[in-house]
Every structure is written in structure tokens, then in C-alpha cells.
Design brief:
Layout lengths: L1 E8 L5 E7 L3 H8 L8 E9 L3 H11 L11 E3 L2 H8 L6 H66 L2 H38 L3 H41 L3 H29 L2
Antiparallel strand pairs: 1-2, 1-3, 2-4
Helix pairs in contact: 4-7, 5-6
Length: 277
């Protein structure tokens, strides 16, 4: 904020001084009143300038350049009234400045209001998209839960059928038979070795009989055990082909489905808690 001024001096008739000041023109006139000037300067005219004070001063000097006495001096050989008539159209009046300030204020207020509305719209759009995404995820989880419930009920119904109970009995029988085969393969060689050791009369004979019986029985019962295991596997595959998925496998599937169902319910509760404000 500053002023462009026109000063006159009685000791310099026909000359005017055009310059700028960031203080009041009267203060600037008093500053120029020194022993080097016979008479004090008088403020003939002044115009307030909001910004670009130096640019406005140069513009005024350019408008009055044909009347300038020297390029490094701010004195012009021109009548005061003529200088005012040349410069005055390029300045705003106090009312015009006030109107311009009000216009700028309203424009800034409108811009601020527009930015606030735009920000609110962006937030609302973001919330809407988040809500739609949550709703989509919730619907997907509900659909998965319904499918898991149907699968769970189907397995429970299957397990309650007589065929599943028969399959369970066969499965348990195979487990017991497999256990007996393993025990036979492990214990029979030692039992035969003990029998051979008892059958001998001398210690060398006892050891030879025990070793012979052990290795022969190990080979024999091992071979027999492998045959039994292979037969058990074939019977199990045949049973699965007849009855479908085994009882144990259905139990495992049932447990897996229950865990999966709990996870889906937890996810659903978490999403619904986020959705609820």
C-alpha cells in the first residue's frame, strides 16, 4: 500500500514533482522540506495504490515523459491541472477501490465455498464407494455362508445314512486289521527267534536256531504283511467306489467346513461393524 503524488513548489513555478511514497503524501512533503529548497512542497494530488507501486510510478513517468526535465529526476515541466488530467484516469477512486476490494473478497469467498463443496462431494463420493464395496463384500460373504450351510447340512445328512455307518464300520475294521498286521510283522520274528532259541540244546545251536528262525519269519511275515496291506488298500478303494467318500474323509470335510463357516461369520461381523457408524 502506498501513494502516487504530485507536488508543487512556489519557488519552482511551472514544475511538478511526481513520485511514490509508502507513507502519507504529507509526510513525504515534509521530508523534502530542507535547506536546499526555498519553499516547502505542497501536495497537489495523490492517489492510493494497493500493489505494484513502483510499476505504477514508472507508468506515470512514462505518461509524462515528454514533459520530463531529466531522466534521473522526478520533475516535469507541466501545469498541475494538465498533469492531473493525464494521470487521474489511470487511478481508481476510493469508492472504486472499495468496490474492487469487495469484488475480490466475494470472489475469494465464492472460491472458498466452491472448494468446500467440492471437498464435501469428494468425501461423500468416497463414502458412497466404500459403502457399496462393503455391501458387495457383505453380500458375497452371505452367499458363501449360505453355500457352506447347504454343504454342511448335506454332509450331516449323508453321515446319518445307513451307508455311512456301514462305511464307518468297514473303515474301523480295516484300521484294526492294519494294526494287527503291523504288530504281527514286528512281533512274530522275535517270537520265532525265541522259539528257536528254546529249541536248541547248546548255546551255539540256540543262537543259530534263533537267528535262522528270526530271518525266515521276518521275510515270511513281512511278505505276508505287505500282501495284506495291499489287499486292505484294494478293499478300501472298492468301498469308497461303492459308498463314495469315506466316513473319516467326510468327518474331515465337515470339520473344515465348520472352520470355514466360522471365518466367514467373523469377516461378516467385522464388515458390518465397519459399516455401522
Amino acid at each position: 500500500m502506498g501513494f502516487i503524488y504530485i507536488f508543487t513548489n512556489e519557488s519552482m513555478p511551472g514544475l511538478v514533482k511526481v513520485g511514490l511514497t509508502t507513507r502519507s503524501p504529507e509526510e513525504r512533503a515534509r521530508e523534502l522540506d530542507s535547506t536546499g529548497v526555498p519553499m516547502p512542497f505542497r501536495v497537489a494530488a495523490s492517489w492510493p495504490v494497493e500493489s505494484d507501486l513502483k510499476i505504477m510510478e514508472n507508468k506515470c513517468h512514462q505518461l509524462l515523459k515528454e514533459f520530463r526535465l531529466s531522466n534521473n529526476r522526478e520533475f516535469f515541466k507541466i501545469e498541475v491541472s494538465e498533469a492531473i488530467s493525464i494521470l487521474d484516469p489511470h487511478f481508481l477512486t476510493s469508492e472504486q477501490i472499495a468496490l474492487e476490494k469487495e469484488r475480490i473478497r466475494k470472489k475469494r469467498e465464492q472460491q472458498r465455498h466452491y472448494e468446500e463443496q467440492l471437498k464435501k462431494q469428494r468425501i461423500q463420493e468416497k463414502e458412497r464407494l466404500s459403502l457399496e464395496r462393503w455391501q458387495g463384500e457383505i453380500e458375497s460373504l452371505k452367499s458363501n455362508i449360505n453355500l457352506l450351510d447347504c454343504r454342511l447340512e448335506s454332509i450331516k445328512l449323508t453321515l446319518s445314512q445307513p451307508e455311512s455307518l456301514i462305511s464307518l464300520a468297514l473303515y474301523k475294521f480295516h484300521e484294526i486289521l492294519s494294526l494287527l498286521v503291523v504288530i504281527l510283522m514286528r512281533l512274530a520274528p522275535f517270537a520265532m527267534a525265541l522259539f528257536g532259541f528254546i529249541s536248541g540244546e547248546y548255546i551255539i545251536q540256540k543262537l543259530l536256531f534263533a537267528g535262522g528262525f528270526y530271518f525266515v519269519s521276518l521275510f515270511f511275515f513281512g511278505f505276508l504283511g505287505f500282501i495284506c496291506i495291499a489287499l486292505i488298500g484294494q478293499i478300501e478303494r472298492l468301498r469308497c467306489a461303492i459308498f463314495g467318500e469315506s466316513y473319516a474323509q467326510q468327518q474331515v470335510t465337515l470339520g473344515t467346513l465348520v472352520c470355514k463357516l466360522k471365518e466367514e461369520h467373523n469377516k461378516l461381523n467385522c464388515l458390518e461393524s465397519k459399516k455401522t457408524p
